[in-house]
Amino acid sequence: MYLNYFGLHTEPFSIAPDPQFLYLSERHQEALAHLSYGLQGSGGFILLTGEVGTGKTTVSRALLEQLPEHTQTAFILNPMLNSIELLATLCDEFGIDYEAQGATAKQLTDKLSQFLLAAHAQNRQCVVLIDEAQHLQPQVLEQLRLLTNLETNQHKLLRVILIGQPELQDLLRRRELRQLAQRITARYHLLPLQFADSERYINYRLQVAGAQRGLFDASAIKKVHQASEGIPRRLNLLCDRALLAAYNDQQPVVGAKHIKIAVQELDGGVGTATTMPQSPRGLTNFLNRGLSLIVVAAIVASIVAVGSWWWLQPNSAVSTPATTQIEAPKPAAVEALAHAWQLPKPPINTDFCRWIESFELMCIAGSARYDQIVKTNLPHLLVLADSSYQFVGSSNQQPADNWTGDFVLVVAQPPGYTATEAEVEGSVYQQWLAQQLKQQSLQASEPLAQQLQRLQVAKGLSVTSKLDALTLAWLISQSELGGPKLSATAATTEVH
C-alpha cells in the first residue's frame, strides 16, 4: 500500500531471506570470520547459535557463497529425523543412489563413506548444513560424529555446520555428546545489532528498495532499535508496520509516534517490546566455584583459567594475588561490564565468566600498570585498595597512569580457542594468532618470543616476550573480533 507513496519499487522490510537485501553488520561479519576459520581448520564441526531472528540464516548464506566451487553442500532444514532418516537425507542431498526399501544404517553409512572418499580423490569438499539443530536428537548427533571420523592425515572428509538457538549449546553440554563437543573447531553466538548497525541496516534496506531519501527520522530509528532490541527480524516487522502507519498518517517520514503504533500492533496492544525479565540479578558466587585449571597454549605461552577468572601461570609477567585476597565483585560493577558488551543482566547465582562463554566471550584477569591496561581500549574492572570494584568504561574516568593493581577484562574468544584445539600445531587458533601477528608487520620467520617482544615494545605493553594476558587482549581488540571501546563520556561504577 505504501510503496508508491514513498517511491519504493519493492517491500524493504520483508522477512523473506532475499539475497539482494543481504546486510552484514559488524557482528554478522565477526560470525562469518569465525565460521570461515572453522572450515579451514582440522575439525569436523562448526557451531553458530543465536536467538530467534538475529540473522543466523543470513550468516550461513553468506558463508556458503564464500565456499569454493568444488564444494558439495547438503542442506538439512528439517532436523526432526532419526538416525536412519538422517543418513537417507544426506544420501539424497549428495545424489547418492541407494535402496530406499529396507536400507540399514550400515548400508547407508557405507554409501556415504564411498562417496566421501571419491569426492576427496577428486579434490571436492563436502559440507553438511543443519538448520534448527537444537531439535536434533542426541543419537542423531552421535551418528553425525561417527560420519566425521572418516579423515585423511590432514583433513576431515565431511564438515558439519550446526545452526540453532541457544538451546543447542545446552544440548551439546550433555555428557553423552562430549566427544562431539570436543570436535567443534569454531563457534559463535550471534548477538543482536548495536544501534549504529540498526541504523545502517534500516537505511541499507530502504536504499535497495529504491528510496531516494531517508524515510525514518532520528527519533524513529532510536525508538525502533530499542523496541526491537536489535533483532533484525523484529526490526523488519516494526519498520514495515511503521511505514504503513506513516502512510496512513500521510507523513513524508516515519517518526517516533509511528514506531509506537507499530509496537502496539505487533505486540497486541501491549505497547512495549518484549524485554528480558527484570528480576533482581547479581553475582554472589563469582569466585567460589572451586579452582579448575584449563591450560590453553599458544606455542610458547600458556593462559590458564582458574575458577571463574582466567589467570596466567605464575611464571607469566602478568600475575594475580591469591584468590583469597580478592573479594567477588558486586552486581553493579559486573552488570556495568556486561552492559558494555550489550549483554543481558547476569543471572543470580551464576558464574559470570562461565556464563559469558555462551556469548563467545571470556574473562582475562591479572595485575598490571594502568597505562598498560588502557592500551587494550576495552572496558574493564579494577580492584581498588579498599577492596572495592570500579568499572571503567570511559577514557576520562581513569585513575592515574602510575596506578598498578588487579584488573578484569572481557574479550571475544578467538576462533578455535579451546584447551585441546589451541595446542594442536596448525590449529584454527594458531592460524588466527599467526595472522594477527602478520598484520602487525611482524616477521613470521622470527621466533615467536622475538615477535611478541617487538610488538610489546612498539605498543607500550609490558615486555615479557610471551603471550601474556594483556598482549592477547590487545591482539583481540585490534582484530576483526573487536569489542566495545572506552567511550569519551563518564562511565564509572564503584561498589564497596
Automatic annotation (TrEMBL):
UniProt cross-references to InterPro entries, sorted A to Z: AAA+_ATPase, AAA_22, ExeA_AAA_ATPase_DNA-bind, P-loop_NTPase
SUPFAM superfamilies found in the cross-reference section: P-loop containing nucleoside triphosphate hydrolases
CDD domains xref list: AAA (cd00009)
Any GO MF annotation of the entry: ATP hydrolysis activity
Protein name: General secretion pathway protein
Keywords, alphabetical: Membrane, Transmembrane, Transmembrane helix
Domain of life (superkingdom): Bacteria
Pfam families in UniProt: AAA_22
Positions of transmembrane segments: 291-312
Domain AAA+ ATPase: 42-185
